[in-house]
Amino acid sequence: MTEDVRNIVLGLIAAGLGAVLGWLARTYLWRRKLRRKQAFFGLPDNSESLLVVNREAGGPELTVVRHDVFALLELAALIKDCGAHAQLVAHDAAQQSFGERTEFCVGSPTANRRMAAHMHSLLPGVRINTDSEPGPDRGAFQIGSERYRMEGGISEYVILARLTAGQDQEARPVFVFCGQRAITNQAATRYLARHHERLARKHGANTFVLLLKVVNSQAYGPDVVELVGDVTRAAQAPAPAITPPRTSHRAK
After folding, report:
1. N- to C-terminal Cα separation, the chain
2. C-alpha angle with apex 110: 139 to 41, nearest 5 degrees?
3. What's the pLDDT tens digit per position in 117-149?
4. Which band of pLDDT confidence, cut at 50, 70 and 90, is reported for residue 57?
5. Under a CB-based contact definition with an 8 Å cutoff, are residues 161 and 207 in contact?
6. Quick check: 129 and 138 in contact, CB under 8 A?
7. List of residues 6+ apart from 84 with CB closer than 8 A
8. Ranges of H-type helices in 54-94
9. What are phi and psi of 248, to 5 degrees?
């Protein structure tokens, strides 16, 4: 074998080894990223999860409003990426105990019994005005001593939470998307899809409750979302006595 041929063979071997090592490194990084995502969502390979939604009034069939359908599509993509499976159930048919399967609960407590149960048991510091009569406080959130009023299509709020109730690491979390309007539920699911890596780095497998504001949804739909703040402590504390609000939050 001449020196030139030997150099060519050695070059091919080095290129092959480099390609194999590069593939192994990319595979390792991809798997590590996937495992972190699965741990955050509580969705190991081939696990089962629940998508819990409102049952629209008017009949026994499961009919989901348009923006909640879009929210479910966002969540279904996340679940599929984790290699898990999802079951769609109506709020009044979801009777499993907390922590058996990862749950994604979408809707307001006025129309979603499951959401109402989660809010009562796990987020006692959150109050939602459920008055049917028109008024400035209709649909308003009160978290601790702060009140967040809705201005339809201009400034609307939604709670995004990952709840574990202090259970062991094997228990599955519940993700809550509780908005003042259906479009805000979609905005919260999209926010989670876009920022789950940052949220996982910051919160790990712990409970968190975020308050988001959807800005000018009549023009921008669910795409413009601002993080108002982390309200975990106030949301989990016992609800304070009802007093006149100190602060009114409105769109600027």
Report:
1. 78
2. 95
3. 899 889 999 998 877 777 777 888 999 888 999
4. very low
5. yes
6. yes
7. 38, 41, 43, 44, 45, 46, 47, 48, 49, 102
8. 66-81
9. -115, 125
User: Which residues, at least 6 apart from 142, have a Cβ–Cβ distance to it below 8 Å?
Assistant: 126, 127, 128, 129, 148, 245
**Tens-digit pLDDT profile for residues 11-46:** 667 777 777 667 666 666 657 788 899 999 999 999
Reported in sequence order, the residue ranges of 190-247 that DSSP labels E, i.e. its strands, are 208-215, 225-230
CB 251 within 8 A of CB 155: yes
Chain length of the chain: 252
Q: And the tokens for 207?
A: 């409970």
Q: Which residues of 165-185 are buried (b: 16+ CB within 10 A; e: fewer)?
A: eeeeeebbbbbbbbbbbbbbb
d(C-alpha 141, C-alpha 109), whole Å: 12
Euclidean distance between CA atoms 48 and 124, whole angstroms: 28
- The three-class DSSP label of residue 118 is helix
Question: What is the radius of gyration, based on Cα positions, of the chain?
Answer: 23
What pLDDT score does 162 carry?
Answer: 95
Give which of 41, 33, 115 is closest to 79, Cα–Cα: 41
* Mean pLDDT, the chain, whole residue set: 83
pLDDT at 251: 44
